[in-house]
Protein 1
Amino acid sequence: MNRSFPLVRTYPLVLATLLVAAMGLILLATPASDAARWIVGAYALVIAAWEAAGMIRQLLRGHAGLDILAVTAITAAVLVGEPWAALVVVLMLTGGAALEDYAENRSKRELTALLRKAPQRANRILDGVAADRPAEALTEEVPVDDVEVGDLLLVRPGALVPVNAILVSEHAVFDESSLTGESLPVERAAGERVSSGAVNGRVALVMRAAARAADSEYQQIVRLVEQAAGSRAKVVRLADRYAVPFTVLALGIAGIAWAVSGEAVRFAEVLVVATPCPLLIAAPVAFLGGMSRAARFGLIVKGGGTLEQLSRARSAAFDKTGTLTIGKPILERVLPAHGFGDDELLRLAASAEVYSSHVLADSVVGAARQRNLALLEVEHAEEIATNGVAATLNTSHGPDAVIVRVGKSSWLREYASDLTIADLAPGELAIYVAAGHRFAGAVVMRDRVRPEAGRALQELRQLGIERTLMVTGDIATTAEPIARGLGISEVHAECRPGDKVRIVSEVQPRPLIMVGDGLNDAPVLAAADIGFAMGARGATAASESADIVNRFDTLASLPRAVRIGQDTVRIALQSIWLGIIISVGLMLIAAFGFLPALLGAWLQEVVDLVAILGALRALGPRSERGPRSPLAEAAAHKDEPPAAPSSEFSGRPDGITRTSEK
């Protein structure tokens, strides 16, 4: 009984319609059978008046809808003595909302699962505690939104990391499989960064908050999902575009049938089968189903309109580092300038790169740690997007702190006139270092092409992508060998963010997909028809600018997204045309007098149900299983906290700023 009350509150008109129908059926078995017709007819006219008022409000806002057919059908059926047929149309109108809610909830199941599992609470440590004795910590449980940067947090075994944080404990193991696609546990050491939503292993940990909840990885994903769940696609609006011509056609057939036969009942018989619920419900359900299917594979689609654009995409542009390549280059060699040693140069570069969000930064820092180099104290750091990072370090070259710049040669040449360009082999890249106004040397690295990149590009061509190009900030000698190996003949190298936006805006044919993953990709992702962010590494700016966020670190997700978009639009259009064709067919049958009003109304209900079930095909086949996303993980393990994030995030230590140049 308790479960019925929410249904009553949610669908009062459905309940009222069923009660009126039951009352009428009871009265039919009594001498007051005429009263049944009056009650049913009066109720139908009240609902018609209610719907007409809403329809008029929509018309005043400039939105023409299909409700006029239902209102006209109800009124006509009552006036020609078919109140029961009118009641069936009323049931379709009121029950259609219930069917739509069910279908939408079914299709959004993957999307909403994550929202229910977002971190809500955190255990904040009140007194100082040794990192190796978390059990002794005195804590208070607080809402995750109350956590401030710098707070010490206790993360219990199996619990979610509530905010982006720095590991204080000596060693930890986290489950990050649901976002990165990596099935093995990930080990972290003291000082490493961990994103919110990661699931702790079997040992309690101490962590220091590096970002507030609103700026943390998991909450960023939640906002993306909320945006996706509330979207409405352009193709869905196509159903509204059919409203006026369909209404004119239906009224025309009904009017001709009445005029030719001379029977007003023909007018009502035609209109009761001219209420195209599939146009109103099935298309939105198909798009929500497609978005849910994408979420199953770690693809957060921000809007149904993105699926429509994907289905028509004809060009694709790619950033290089972290997109076509793995984005974790390995150290090839160190080329110190005169007066600097190998280890000293690498130490300078790594000390500054700690504060960079570029995908090369972690590789430089990792190479220094492999050599057991102690990093230098940083007083201040500033990241200059597309150029590099400038950090004030305490070095051995004088008593005062020195500004160390790490990045592109074109940028460093402004500060170190003695800079020498490194001699690079194909596929190698160099990071240049300057200490004050002295050129310190270059760190040479080599990135590896993603093993799935070639296959992904081949699939894109099979799916109708006619033009592919690379748009990168790297130099041509590094970018061109990789592009040639992948069959990309068009390369735009050494591009700044503004250059990328200009190039992408001029590319034909459209629509165009732009694929990137870094801070400097955010403007071009926003400018493209479809921005596709390789977000597994937590590049928040890129993720928020993009239309699709790929939570798994694989380029194979791109052709999958295009395929899902094509399938979804095909199913949505099938639903629209199914509703039109069947409704027109039933109208013609009714026009010749072969379909009584009551039977026609019930047939229309069946057609509506079939169309909605057909739209749910956009969810994909049951046998289709992809890597477990945070959404699928949350749905499958309702009693367990889901793993979610990546290993990088947007939070920065105090005093660290980032400057974007466009």
Protein 2
Amino acid sequence: MTFPYGISDFYKLITEGYLYLDRTDRIRLVEEAGSQLLFLRPRRFGKSLWLSTLENYYDVAKADEFERLFGHLTIGQRPTALHNRYFILRWDFSVVDPQGEIRHIRRSLYNHINAAIERFAWRYQDLLPHPIERDDDDALRSFQSLLAVIQQTPYRLYLLIDEYDNFANEVLMAGRERYEALLSGEGLLKTLFKAVKSASSGLGLDRVFITGVSPVVLSDVTSGYNIAEDVSLHPRFDDLCGFTEAEIAGVLHQIAALCGFSANRTDEALTMMRTFYNGYRFSLEQEAPVYNPTLALYFFKNWQRDCRYPRQMLDSNLAMDRAKIAYIARLPHGEQVILDALSEERPLRLSALSDRFGVEEMLTAAKGTDFMISLLYYFGVLTLAEPSPFGEMVFRIPNLVVRRLYAEQFREQLLPRFQDEGRRAARRLFQRGEIGPLCRFVERRYFPVLANRDYRWANELTVKTAFLTLLFDDVFYVIDSEAALERKYADLALIVRPDMRRYRLLDILIEFKYIALQDLGLSGEQVQNLSAEEIWNLGMVQSRLQEATAQLQTYRHAVEARYGEALRLRTYAVIALGFERLVCSPIG
């Protein structure tokens, strides 16, 4: 099989025999949904390929190739009346340079639009009655000329806008002032979308399909373009972009056959992919989550080429999404939102997803955290879980590769100068089973930082998150901060990846307990002055230690039953006395 990793050209996929998982049945649904549509999905989720699919289906210049491109696909068996009935104009705002002053951005945007119009004129030269007049200084005048020419033909225009918010989001993350100049008043983007709105009122523009990541930019230009219907949460488009588990399993079976693997290896590979890549839900009615297609293709390509899982499960092309988490963390109350997402026990909830919020909401603390949770969802680093018993939308981190981005961001935000020391302490635990160095590091480096933060929760969740960020290593481990074991949950489980069991690494289970200083009846200074023996002999410490020991014994039996003789399990109890001291003890 040939995998279209990094390829978003439908024509190339079909004519050169790349793997293509058919979504053409949705073309009819898109037609029925409306003529001005907005579709939001995270980065690298297949949006550009979908636009390319629409382009090839509706392009009047591709009429002679319809059977070749679509005859073997679902839509080709019963095409709609509109196939090959449009001129296609496509803008891709991801190529617009967001650097420099607004005049530089305007020049980059206008250059892109003019280049697209020039390609349009060349492509349809035999169908146009006379040339389009291009204005190098004002691309909107070029666009108006294009529309005037189109009106003299029997066809109408289908405008495809890819990554509509790409360069504006880059500008926003660099600073508020340039962003406001770009959008506020009669800013550049507002003027552009006004022109698109005007063109759709009988001037030759019949359909528009826009893709992007979030609704922020459209909210800030809403007076300029308020006619697009957002279909991002419609259940019928849940898996318009993304792969289903059945599709993933089918491809894995084919690769396993090529590598000579048994059915057990296929099941193991599917479990790996489910753990690391699955988990995206885009509506409450969605029955099964979908896989990020870029990550799935990355895995397929590596497994077929080497007959081994990729050592790095996170495709480096998606690692930049951590910048989105960092952006939220810098906003008022943003760090608490990141901590809540990581800690899991108190999931993030909303009555409704925010779909109309602009930069003012993002930069005003009084607006609360609803928009931040919504934005993390749009960025693809949170996704929908099962709704609460009260009908609230519940959000969670979708999978392990995204959890890694959170862990790295939280660790680097709190401990920017001690990364190497923390990694060395973690290796001592992984390789030798020595938890002491890690606990001393947390006491010495992490606790002073946590004590100075105004976190909503000060308990074992915060301590567990600190350990999680230090121990997160998805090259060698499957990390689960709530490993379900016989309907009970271990606080932190690090199980060696099946393909890494050839190395002498230990499997780790840790149970955390937290004792508030007020429950001890001691001040922080008094706790700091106690010796290790005095802390060990405290009645509350011994009580929590007994609780943790009993729980870990239950978890041990469950883990050993699941993983068998391959397991090299070590279990530990970690008891925090406020954010002052730790008692860390191997169990069993």
